[in-house]
Amino acid sequence: MLRPHLNAIATAVPDFERHAAFLESLPRWIRPEATLEKVQLIAQNSAIGRRHTVLSHPLGEPGSGSFYGYGAFPSTGKRMEVYRQEAPRLAGRAVAALQAQVGSLAEVTHLIVTTCTGFYAPGLDIEVVQQAGLSPAVKRTVIGFMGCYAALTGLRQAREIVLSDPAAVVLMVNVELCSLHLQETAQLDRLVSFCLFADGAAASLISGRASGLRLDGCQTALSLADADRMAWTVEDQGFAMTLDVRVPAKIKQFLARHPEAVGRCAQAGPEDVWAIHPGGRMILDALQGHYGLSEAQMAPSRGVLRDFGNMSSATIMFALARLLAEAGAEDREGHALAFGPGLTVESADFTVLGTSRAGILSD
Prior knowledge:
There is one protein chain. Helix 3 runs parallel beside helix 4, helix 7 runs parallel beside helix 8 and helix 9 packs across helix 10. A hairpin with a 2-residue loop joins strand 11 and strand 12. The chain contains ten helices and 15 strands. The strands form four sheets. The protein has a nine-stranded mixed beta sheet, sandwiched between helices. By secondary structure, it is α/β, with parallel strands linked by helices. The chain folds into two domains: 203 residues, Thiolase/Chalcone synthase (Peroxisomal Thiolase, Chain A, domain 1, 3-Layer(aba) Sandwich); 140 residues, Thiolase/Chalcone synthase (Peroxisomal Thiolase, Chain A, domain 1), CATH 3.40.47.
């Protein structure tokens, strides 16, 4: 029986690492003092060590050439100009890294692109087709504005494509430039998100070939009672994130009430592997406690949070890439969880194959 597989994952981040510089800048643009102190404490406890951005000089005095001049942050239009320049470049780096793993992408039949940090048309999907040398007849789908869980939505779509067409070869590209949406504000919930988010991209190949990670099942669930806990809206000075501090607790409560909504997670064993979206330390702590996971099981997600921060939809693919890279001789069951506006919980059950992880098109 045909089983869809995630055959390979490649990731990319921009050249500029600016987490420490961002923290040092906070006293220059956050007011009042009480809000500044709260943000600094949250940042210190974030468990993030590094974050990358496409901006070479993100913050500085007006006239210094910085993208965010204190007191003169750019309009949404200016931010979208940068997105249109930089998103294809970062996507291209991830796709090139995937090509280095698997060889030619000439047999790709479907393209899925996820992004929630920028829009333009003709869009990023068409630029990926051009950069990767894909057929103009490739079937394109853009999953936009779904936030941090969109990559699992993309995997769910890719799995269904392969199930309906055994010859399908799906390329998925996740690109997020979260650093383009910093806002000068006194709203604490928005400021908290700026301490977490970063830029990154991933490119993946999904097909019926039995190598890599077998996609056993995908689920999606909504906690409509908590729909207003997370929001992502377009405003005059960028896209605005609203992030309720109670989100980790609300996710945990929803999973306790509806264990069946996330596939085999509730039946997971102590040897199973996990990829939990590193939305923040509190979310990881809540899910670790809820499922009784070991530090080893949390290591992929905590490592991605530490090394890259939250890159919205691309982040879960960084965690899955670590699981693929660490696969051993034996098959291991696994589970992926991601969360976003809605309040949405997207999940996948999978098996990391203990066999060859050769690229689908390399032979």
